[in-house]
């Protein structure tokens, strides 16, 4: 494994030495943290297989349900790696908790990144939706050789569902926040797809690369600084869309709040934050059926 060096001033970023590219590297891998995701993990995997993901690196944070069994039934050793990943880490110098996802993302890049042209760092409630082409790789052709792509959240809340509806998640939730580039607190953010062999700094929502520093591109290939990507001019959404199914039904939202977040030390702070985000999303909704139309047009089997 390569080396990880926590920044003293910020426990949410890690600097790394990028891995060397392996001969014949190709395709896209996803690295993701999971815990007790049995209800929806099959749909998430089937969809991303259908859009061309080559390998899934699943960092399992102590699941006690059927998550891992479902994954092993769906995927073979060529497409699945499950890494047990539990516990919290504290910086010994500052006493600050290290962000668990950042450590996972750095670990994935350092240990597996050399085999792939791209690695995507998303969650299991996020779906990579091609708007042009049939696969994520085809959608990324607009970016060319640039190594750092940022995709803004398209935030879906309950879509009026009080209890979990039958059928696939991606077909049931079609109402999202109108403006992915909103300035509302915690509602607007990004997830990234990067060339792992170029990454020198890792965090959850942004990366730095060796040649281009903090420059990142939208899905159309237009480049912006890390700060400038928050401007309305950054938004393209022509080639690739990131759908974030933030709450699912109201019942599932309440269960989410009861569970809390593994890497959040304050359950009350977490609850207040989530409820504020949901309120902000649902203040201004639009109907977005791009996912439904893509699934139907391509006859994707989500297993439900």
UniProtKB/TrEMBL annotation:
Cross-referenced InterPro entries: Glyco_transf_92, Nucleotide-diphossugar_trans
Which locations, inside or outside the cell, does it occupy?
Membrane
Which key words are in the record? Answer: Glycosyltransferase, Membrane, Transferase, Transmembrane, Transmembrane helix
Membrane topology for this entry? Single-pass membrane protein
* Pfam families per record: Glyco_transf_92
Q: Where is this region: Disordered?
A: 1-20
Can the keyword Transmembrane be found in this entry's annotation? yes
Q: Name where it mostly resides.
A: membrane
What is the designated name of this protein?
Glycosyltransferase family 92 protein
